[in-house]
Structure formats: C-alpha cells, structure tokens
Amino acid sequence: MIGKLDFKEEIKKHKIVLVGLEHYNPLGIIRSFGEMGINIDYVGISYHVSVASASMYINTLHQVNSIPEAYEVVLKNYGGLYKESGVKPILLFSDDDVYSIFDEHIEELQLNFITANAGKNGRVIEFMDKDKIQECAKRHGLPVISSFVVKPGEVPEGLKYPVITKAISPLAGAWKGDFHICENEKELRENMATINAEKCMIQPYVEKKTEIQFEGYSYNHGKGMFTAVEIANNYPVRGYYGPYMNVFPPKHHNLLKKLNAVLEEVGFEGLWEIEFLVDKDDNYWFLEVNFRSSPWHRAATIAGMPLAYYWILTTLTGECPKSKEFEPFNAMVETVDYSKRVEEGRCTLAEWISDFKNAGCTYYYDAVDQEPWKLVVKNWDQLK
C-alpha cells in the first residue's frame, strides 16, 4: 500500500538523484519528496535564477554550469555506489536536453542506475523528434495536425496562412525560440532565416480554445501506464502556454488507451507529460510526448499522487497504485501568469491576487519552503 513505512524505509536505501536546469520543474520534484520526509540529491545546472537549489529539502547539492558537467558529476559521485552497496541509485530528470545526454548511454547506465529508458541507447531521443512521434501517434489512431518537415528556407507550395514554425526536436536549433506564427509567406521566409536547425516543421496555425496535458508515468516497457491528472489551460495565449490552469481527474479515457499504445511502441519506462491542443470546435489534436518530469507533476502531488515516488514504487515492487479521486483545483505559475494577465490587461491586480490566494497549487510559492519564493520576488522580471 502506498505510503507504508516499510516502503519508505526501502526507498531511503536508494540514493535519489535529480538532474535538471534551475527552474520550477525540479523545485516541484524536490518539494514532493521532501514533504514525505525523503530529501534527495540535486545536480542543478545554471539557468536564470537558482530557485530549486534554494529549497530546504535538498540532501546534497551539486551546482554546475553545463549539461556535460552534470553528466560527469553524476558518474563521479554516484556511478560506483551500486558496486559498493549493492543498491542502485535512482536518476530523475526534468529537461529534454539534460536527459538526452544520458539516453545516449542508457544501456551502460542501467547497469549501475535505475532510470527512465526505452531499452536501448538513443531510443528516447529518436522519439523526441516531433515528426517521428506524430507518425507514431497517427498509427495508433490519434488525430494529428498536418505538417511539413523542411530545411529552413524551403517553403512548400499551397500553404494556407497563417502557419507556425517549430523546431523538429527539443535538441535542435533554438527549440522554443524557433516557434513563430507567420501570417504570410514573407513573414515565414523572414522567420525561417533565423532557424539554425537542419530541419523545421511547418503546420497550419490552429486557433486554440485551450491546451490539455496528461501527467503520469509508464512501466513494463510501456505496457503499463498510470495517469494521475489531466490539466486544461484556463485561458488561451496566442503562441504560448496558459500559466493559470485547471487540474482534474483524467476523463478522456479514449485518448489514454491510444496513448498507452504509443508508449508501448516506444517501450518507454519513466515519467512523462503528453500534450494536446483543443481547437474552437472542441477537436483534440495530439502535439507531443515529453519523456521526463513536467512542472505540472507538482499539481499531481497536490492531488495526492506524487508521480516520481509512485514511479519508483512501481519500478521496485512491480505494483502500480490506484489513482485517487480529488476535487478539481486551479494551479498557477505566478510570475508568468502575472505577466500574461495583469500586465497584458486580461484581469485586474485585485482579481489576480484573489486567484493567487485561492490557487490549490502554486509552482514557486510554498508556505514552508520559503527561500525559493524569496529569490523569485527578488528576480521577478527574469522569471516572467
């Protein structure tokens, strides 16, 4: 049974190591374990403001300046623990580009660590490619927006504008910096001239009603899947995610069955987030799978289902917990939501303060673990 003392004591035998860029994603993981009395080690990679490193729940902190340095720190400090103690450390990740350097060597790493994997070196990287994962999704009956994959500068004939450009992979080009909404061919060519990746994706621009995300993990080579929460953005932002969101028990079970088939084809074992766009006519369009923890996993913890802890339990025992019922609640990325709603005139300051106070989940603020919030307030403009 989840939360029994015997399993908590068992999990404490394993060194849990989180590797991630400094932002609110790893902060949520650190807090989720710390609140259960399990302080984990954190390899924090310099990025904007070191909010995660400020958490009171960290056991051992390693601060580094690059992803390759983080990889070396993990091998140096934890690579020999299994031979010494007979207990494998557990590796967790909160960023695509961070995980990718480990995925390149995942077969060797699995000899000494318990970690997310798809069975062989580079398999997860392969499906970080948007074209590849969308083709996989189509094979399993999921609706996908039509797209072209081209070299930057190539403009397909017959495009209907507006269109968007996307990096083909989180490991290519400027990633989110390669996202552009283009109203005509002139804008498309101008924006494509800024893309450094070898390939990019062009899609029709679909006016969204909202986006939804499923948060969970898979196990047994992707055959098993646990989904804790479904999340919908409370208001659309053109070309951006909605930082004020509603969290509720998963209800689109027809999509979940097809997503399970996708994860099984990939063979993925680990934490994930899966995203859909919902258009004005309430059609659901598959976007992508993020093969790692998401910032919104913190909301799953608030709902009573700490996903990283659950995944470790399932991995070590072979038992998958039952999902919990909970009342829907709102969650807020405070700095970004303030920028998008107050500064851009979507709501008044008084309305925003009320929403902040009533949010069931805030991604920076925590009444107990206060040092990260103090850094946020001090560096507010950097985190918008």
Secondary structure elements and pairings:
Blueprint: H1 5-11, E1 16-21, H2 24-34, E2 41-45, E3 61-64, H3 67-78, H4 81-85, E4 90-93, H5 96-103, H6 106-109, E5 114-115, H7 123-128, H8 130-139, E6 148-150, E7 163-167, E8 180-182, H9 185-192, E9 200-204, E10 208-219, E11 224-233, E12 244-248, H10 253-266, E13 270-279, E14 284-290, H11 297-302, H12 307-317, E15 329-332, H13 334-343, H14 349-358, E16 361-362, H15 371-378
Parallel strand pairs: 1-2, 1-4, 2-3, 4-5, 15-16
Antiparallel strand pairs: 6-9, 7-8, 7-9, 10-11, 10-13, 11-12, 12-15, 13-14
Helix pairs in contact: 3-5, 8-10
What would you note in describing this structure?
With 384 residues, the protein is α/β, with parallel strands linked by helices. The chain is 34% helix and 23% strand. The strands form 3 sheets. The protein has a 7-stranded mixed β-sheet. A 5-stranded parallel β-sheet has the order 3-2-1-4-5, sandwiched between helices. Strands 6-9-7-8 form a 4-stranded antiparallel β-sheet, covered by helices on one side. Strand 1 (16-21), helix 2 (24-34) and strand 2 form a beta-alpha-beta unit. The chain starts with a helix and ends in a 6-residue tail after the last helix. The relative contact order is 0.13. Residues 1-5 have low confidence and may be disordered.
